[in-house]
């Protein structure tokens, strides 16, 4: 990821024409330790011979954070006159002129003061990355654009500073800095996050236990989703053909037939998917040698309509071998749970050929199969 040699000091040095790597430290709330962890990694890489600088650090008067930054080279801030008040922002041009291998930039969602070259700090980060410089940055989960309404419902706070979701999607690495809500409350009460006079107000508002629990779940789920999306993309591109894909989230497949119990199976499968917050699919396998009657065709159409009403995707394939078809779909859609009805075959046919359930269990690995009992037909 890095080169061990420092760039020569003369101005003729030209960086390789490649985009820098971006590593984001994300957490559920202020005070979880994102900036501290970023600084720790900066020190470690500096000791390994990497040319590291601090582009922008916000300590918020946290003594531990300020102490951890000691020993790292700091790029001086840019001074900006805003309505006769001198304010400071990261000097992106100075970072580019310095040309380090890695720059540490705090608070990705920050809005720059009026008069700055760019409106948002994440836009400065993108300029630095485009110049081939690696960036470590920090952000809290509530600043993600797509989560803005949800965070407002959870906490009652409308977050004004937001970043596009694509920043996480495009990042080379996203690290969750996770602590328990109890630990965060202790840090708050000890004055390690805000001044002591602000502690009670914070505990009664944003830092309420229920808020922290919900935000923590959001942070962990967001990164898990990104990991799975990357794994799915790599699997579809064949970049990890030697290693089987392991699904992080559940995916439910209901196998329907022309039997009347298919409606019951769809409802049960939809409930299972709902409990698991899982994508939901229904599969019907056509027999090439058998034409459906009008009643059977209408029945399958009803199954498809019901599946879509539950927010599912209806899949219809043609195959002589039902077990093979189910197995192929399960693999293609990364299914983790399959719902089927108990066999309608006679005991004699089961002894000769075996049940669909038994054949599926032999064909599929790491997939749970739910066999739903139905009323016996007379």
From TrEMBL:
InterPro entries: Histidine_kinase_KdpD, P-loop_NTPase, Rossmann-like_a/b/a_fold, Sig_transdc_His_kinase_KdpD_N
Top-level taxonomic group: Bacteria
Residue ranges of coiled coil: none
Pfam families xref list: KdpD (PF02702)
One GO MF term attached to the UniProt entry: kinase activity
DNA-binding listed as a keyword: no
All copies of domain Signal transduction histidine kinase osmosensitive K+ channel sensor N-terminal, residue ranges: 19-227
Signal peptide (from-to): none
Record bears the keyword Glycosyltransferase: no
Key words of the record: Kinase, Transferase, Two-component regulatory system
Protein name: Sensor histidine kinase KdpD
